[in-house]
Amino acid sequence: MSEDQYRLLPSVDRVLADARFAAHSGDRLVTAVVRETLEAARARIAAGEPAPAYEAVVADALRRLQDEREPPLRPLINATGVILHTNLGRAPLAVEAVQAMAAGSGYGNLELDLASGRRGSRHALLAPLVRRLTGAEAAIAVNNNAAAVLLALSALCARREVVISRGELVEIGGGFRVPDVMRQSGAKLVEVGTTNRTRLADYADAIGPRTAALMRVHASNFRIRGFTEAPALDALAALAHERGVLLIDDLGSGCLLDTTSWGLPAEPRPQDAITAGADVVLFSGDKLLGGPQAGIAAGRRERIDTMRRHPLARAVRLDKSSIAGLAATLRLYAEGRAEERLPVWRMIAAPVDALAARARAIAATVPGAEVRDARAAVGGGALPDESLPSKAVGLPAGSGARATRLLAALRARGVIARIEDDAVLLDVRTIDPGEDARAAAALREALASSG
Description:
Helix content is 43%, strand content 18%. The chain is built from 20 helices and 16 strands. The strands form 4 sheets. It has a 7-stranded mixed β-sheet, with helices on both faces. It has a 5-stranded mixed β-sheet with strand order 2-12-13-16-15. A two-stranded parallel ribbon has the order 1-14. Helix 7 packs parallel to helix 15 and helix 19 packs across helix 20.
């Protein structure tokens, strides 16, 4: 019986000869997709299913071909209200950064000193901007902040001890744990204090002949409240230097601006850590800094040079496009235009009245939509428990199941929203104003298709 079913399947050549594939004659991808489609049909027959009809085979092959030709990274509208949404790529880039990355995709002076004609260093392309913005003596950029932490510990602390507060042994997204990174680097972790209280004396008592550094890790994705204590960074720096060890400060989010200007708590900044006396400061490029994925280490020249010469530095170095994009982003800060040009800061700074006007304009084009008060989060492991007042376009769904269907229909149209109280909400704080019309159209289509 199954042999008869196999014979009902069309041949590869017959499918390729179909008029719907004629335009792709000789295309190796098309041939491969047709073969995979027929192999999948044979597998279903082997499992006891009947052979699919010819039209079903062609339709399956066309669907597979369309999926193959879709770019793997699709542009989306972020209507979740989370500004630095890790699943959606964190910080949207400034136009200047996108243009710089495109321009930097060809040949360029990545490792060529144009003045001498000799080999140069890719690290020299970013270091002057980082030094200007942070006051550090030297800087190096790698492919993310986890890599920066690993490189710093490997280059400066391997086979020696690093003293850290128990309350800072954090885990961030993806299972990244500070103790695991320390072990990978070869450094030995020495925990001091308690979860909620660590005093300067705790660090002092732990320093011994094998101590390489004191390390502070910013608890960027959680808060410990109540009966807490931690020494100031300048006090830690003074202790470290008095005892002949380093102070490494892992800030995480890479915030260069004063967040209190927008009613948010103060987020630690690299320039403040340098001023306080940290030897090496580590931070991200793709969070509050607003650039492409990167990890930046800034600090004392001798320490940064040691990191740059370490073999791991080559394994985690930045590619040319990321260097171009990060340089363009840092230049906006140097020119004093970050608040105006970087999408992250424009979203944070957007006034609620302007958000309400945009929400009303979108809602007016969608049957049953209403404007709702909302709270938007910074996200990306920055400023936990803090939110900004916002406005959202809401569609009461009547049931969780209908809300889930509507959410899926929006995703299919490139809009990522959220459900709250059985209503689908599109938070306009995280929608670029230029995408309002597209978001409204997607919402109307999704509403019509989801029933």
